[in-house]
Amino acid sequence: MSSTAEDYRVATDQNTAVTEETVPRARRERRRLPLSPDRLRSLLGLMSPLALLLLWEAGVHLGLVDYRFFPAPTAILAETWDMLRSGELVRDMGWSLSRIFVGFFGGGFLGLVVGLSMGLFRPVRLLLRPIVSAIYPIPKLALYPLILLVFGISETAMYFTIGLGTFFMVLINTQAGVLNLDKIYLDVAKNYGASRKDYYLKIALPGALPLIFTGIELGMGMALLLIVAAEMVGADAGIGQNIWTARDTFQIEQMFVSFFLIALLGYLFAELLAAIERRVIPWKREG
Amino acid sequence: MGPSGCGKTTLLRILAGLETATSGQMRIAQRNPDKPLNSMVFQDQSIFPWMSVRKNISFGLECRGVDRKTTRAVADRYIEMVGLGKFADAYPFQLSGGMKQRVSVARAFANDPEILLMDEPFAALDEQNKLLLQEELLRIWEGSNKTVVFITHSIDEALVLADRVIVMTAHPGTFKEEVEIDLPRPRRIAELRQDPHFNQLFAQVWEILKDEVAKAKEREGYSFHRRERSALDDESHMVM
Question: For the sheet containing B147-151, what is the strand order?
């Protein structure tokens, strides 16, 4: 939040500078001034990546950066265009996205149900906790070879791997969300004769939503990480496979296009989730 | 009424079915088996932060599977009755402490139980808010004539609201004495306080309560020591 204070200071400085001018000029100036504090803030956020790209581009042209490993941003942009035109980019993204969605929704939904149950019912919690605690810390990629043996090199293997990663992230956070609920809400539910369904849908699910969203966000990150790694070994198309092929054929531009694509996906997912979160948790505006 | 730690809340929680008694039995006459037996108004903040005022007040009815139209009509009636008409769609974080407690009271009344259980529902409110809510409670209650079991620390509150005041002994909390409050209804709090009979009753209840409060104070050291030793809540040892 300290950056906000800073942004404001910058904005005020700008305004003072304007008012120091003669009055009519200042008025004209202010009307033309496109920098509301909001716009200034988003501009500041854009500045560091832009500066980095410029430095990078300049570095390549001046021979300070090895273009074989770090091709110029303009070269990457050109490659993006080529890959877009050939349809390769869209195809790879389609594959990866479909895998992410099947795995993410499957694993996330199961994690939600199990997490709510573990949070609500002590016996379920006691029964499942040892298994969850044992499997959760194993990196899911460590299990990938085994998963490949079981399911073969297939879409199922990838769905399962991504599902597994998402499952645990959502489960752990959902359970914590339910356990964090004030016990008084469960008393109210009991006293007012809530059915099992009411416990799930009226108490546990909405009450745990803030933490559930944390779980979904972490699960999303996990899904992106897993898909890329899984595709390197077990797929013939997709973003991860693209990166791997680029290494074999030394097409570094293509590799960077994939990097940027993943970054873009991560950013879009985060924005999408934040928008959904604001919509479904209207009661969490306390700060 | 009873001194702190005598088990008033535990007794109420047993009545509410939230706690099981270690011994003894409880008998409640249910006149209408279609109605829920009891609904509790809790002392602490207990309305659901994730539900709007209307949803909170509808909670009991929804759990009982009352149809949507009736639920809405009943909820809206109680929303008006507690003066939250403008806040029907507001969320608890937008409400003051007094408003939240109004929602809690409305939620219990809307559920239309045989018995209302109230555990010091106004204790956390400031004096003026407390007076307002007591008046509102009297008004709503007078329209319904429900049995209310109301726990309070305050003799004033007991006299203003109750027909009978039952004083409990200090640990172990048992029945000590009952005082009939024969103040006429409908009651107006401001007028009651000037009534000489009100002051008489106040003195009478305080006389009964005083010894128990003193006893509870004496025990404090002991029970504190025991609480340290065992994780069990002192109140759960109450003899019924």
Answer: B38-41, B115-119, B147-151
Q: Which residues of B touch A198 (CB under 8 A)?
A: 62-63
| Average pLDDT, integer, range B2-12 | 89
**For residue range B185-225, what is the model confidence (pLDDT) as tens digits?**
889 888 998 999 999 999 999 999 998 888 888 876 665 55
**Nearest one of A208, A121, A113 to A167, comparing CA atoms:** A113
B63 at A interface, C-beta within 8 A: yes
Distance from CA of B215 to the nearest CA of A (A): 31
In SS3 terms, B164-214 reads as: EEEEECCCCCCEEEEEECCCCCCCCHHHHCCCHHHHHHHHHHHHHHHHHHH
Q: Is A243 on the interface with B (CB under 8 A)?
A: no
Q: What is the pLDDT of residue B225?
A: 53
Q: What is the pTM of this model?
A: 0.80
Give, in order, the Cα–Cα distances in Å from A76 to each of A66, A261, B26: 14, 11, 79
CB spacing of A192 vs B39 below 8 angstroms: yes
Nearest residue of B to residue A210 by CA position? B50
Alpha helices in chain A (DSSP H): 2-19, 23-32, 37-61, 73-86, 88-120, 122-135, 140-151, 155-179, 183-191, 196-198, 205-234, 239-248, 252-280
Which domains occur in chain B, in start order? 8-20+33-235 (3.40.50.300)
Residues 6+ apart with CB under 8 A from A80: A89, A257, A260
Give the pLDDT confidence score for residue A212 in this predicted structure.
Answer: 96
Does A190 touch chain B if contact means CB atoms closer than 8 Å? yes
Asked whether the bond before A130 is cis by omega within 30 degrees of 0, the reply is no
The Cα of B171 is separated from the nearest Cα of chain A by a number of Å equal to 25
In the stretch 196-215 of chain A, residues with CB closer than 8 A to chain B read 198, 202-203, 206-207, 209
The 10s digit of each residue's pLDDT in A143-187 is: 999 999 999 999 999 999 999 999 999 999 999 999 999 999 999
Say whether B64 and A193 touch across the interface (CB within 8 A).
yes
pLDDT tier at A1, thresholds 50, 70, 90: very low
